[in-house]
Design brief:
flat; 2 domains; about 45% helix; two-stranded parallel sheet; mainly alpha
């Protein structure tokens, strides 16, 4: 899809919805209302539908307070097509690679011999919790177990681990603990 969009002259996409938008944006928003958001995630916010279309299911709606939900347009800016091309390459390869598909990162796990705490929401559909487990185990095998920790947070998705209404109580202490140890 990103390469197709680039070929037809689209160089960026945005989740922002302008109330004064033209007919094309309105048509896109009406079409995206049909785009599947999780069954329990009934939402009429066109910004949420655009975010899900662009990035996948990034958050659990029940983890957001109303003000955060209404402010989502301020948190997701314009993304250039190159970003989506790179993400597409990573998805096709099944692991992190550079923009051109080169094995730039995995052959050098010693470069990641630094303290890292992996935090993932159990409901994360953007980066599956299993992927952080694979990375966690890979780095521990290569660089030793002492450097790495991993936490899976129940009932959270991806980015709601940062701006969820209860993230300060459920997630931030894990981040602070990591910062205190390093």
């Amino acid at each position: 899809m990103p390469s197709f969009l680039e070929r037809i002259g689209i160089d960026s996409l945005t989740a922002y919805v302008d109330k004064e938008s033209g007919w094309l944006d309105k048509m896109v928003d009406q079409s995206l209302r049909l785009y599947p958001i999780q069954a329990e995630e009934r939402c009429r916010n066109p910004v949420c539908h655009r975010i899900t279309f662009l990035y996948g299911q990034l958050y659990e709606h029940d983890q957001l307070n109303q003000l955060t939900h209404e402010s989502m347009h301020e948190m997701f800016g314009i993304s250039n097509i190159s970003c989506f091309q790179h993400l597409g390459m990573i998805c096709r390869k099944g692991h992190v690679v550079d923009f051109h598909g080169n094995e730039t990162y995995l052959p050098y796990p010693e470069r990641m011999a630094i303290p890292i705490t992996f935090i993932s929401g159990a409901e994360n559909e953007t980066f599956l919790p299993e992927s952080t487990e694979l990375t966690y185990n890979f780095l521990r095998e290569r660089n030793g177990k002492a450097l790495y920790q991993r936490h899976v947070i129940p009932n959270y998705g991806h980015i709601d681990c940062i701006f969820g209404k209860n993230a300060a109580e459920n997630v931030f202490p894990l981040i602070v603990d990591q910062l205190d140890r390093t």
